[in-house]
């Protein structure tokens, strides 16, 4: 079964998505839908989380990859497939190929997170490290396809990929038939296009809202121009939606079926990831947390009931550590300060006593005496504190000033 035609912009229909769902039966999980009391209280209406972070391979990508590879002709399968990805698409292609008995070669950039590289290999793919940015890795994969005849599996710019991702939309309508707004992250656009196609074909009254990171937002200018445009050097922690140009196939569908595309800051992404971990007990990568970031940024803008699609949970532990600290700082839960003090015995103990009274938890202390900016009897102390919110941060800083310390920032 395949939805490929010579015209990549052929008209995709609801029946295509339904056919993809039958194909995925027993392959992709029908992932859980979890309610969020905290987000519901902010929005003023029920908010549900569609947990594609709990999908096989840790993201929605398996859906589209499996449908695409399953639709290949026998001679194409015999030639094998090739993909380029820093993570989720790589794992989706690797597992789909293993399940279908097709040899997969996956190019990944040098410096890709080790857990993602290891998982892709464990799913059976031949992993080749090439390039330092995804564009270089993509070029290497396309060159390999030309040289070997392997079929290149694009992460989002193909009809089969889109109808596979659209099965998420069908599940949402079954699990939450009262839904009025669906919020989904957008990179190249495959997931948003598929969900929009599936949902709007059944329930045109449901709003579908896409979310991009501010530093990698190619869709707003593209939609304004009426055609895909390139955002040079996209920058965001959300690698899963860090795409400089929309795909031609998904762009046409996003134009038709997605009501609005919003952007969110890096601080909002960090705070959203932290909220998912603390309140929902769900490990979500930054791209997967982007719909939650949109809800946190403007909660009253969404008509409920709302479903936020958590598209993936493959986050490198080292990155997660940095993001959580960033999220705590953005939420006023983490405070860094530098103080100028007199360098004499007992000063540090006195400082810590002030912090104890202020109920700030000291995580780290650095004591500098040799900086040329300091006077002969001066020292500088850098503090990293765990706090209870923005108001507590102000109280701690005020307590230090009231005790006679010069707070430098």
UniProtKB/TrEMBL annotation:
RNA-binding keyword on record: no
Pfam families tied to this protein: PALP
Pathway entry: Amino-acid biosynthesis; L-isoleucine biosynthesis; 2-oxobutanoate from L-threonine: step 1/1; Amino-acid degradation; L-threonine degradation via propanoate pathway; propanoate from L-threonine: step 1/4
InterPro entries: ACT-like_dom_sf, ACT_dom, ACT_ThrD-II-like, Ser/Thr_Dehydratase, Ser/Thr_deHydtase_PyrdxlP-BS, Thr_deHydtase_catblc, TrpB-like_PALP, TrpB-like_PALP_sf
Gene Ontology molecular-function annotations: L-serine ammonia-lyase activity; pyridoxal phosphate binding; threonine deaminase activity
EC number(s) on file: 4.3.1.19
UniProt keyword annotation of Amino-acid biosynthesis present: yes
Cofactor(s) the protein requires to work: pyridoxal 5'-phosphate
NCBIfam families: ilvA_1Cterm
PANTHER family in UniProt: L-THREONINE DEHYDRATASE CATABOLIC TDCB (PTHR48078:SF6), THREONINE DEHYDRATASE, MITOCHONDRIAL-RELATED (PTHR48078)
Protein name per UniProt: L-threonine dehydratase catabolic TdcB
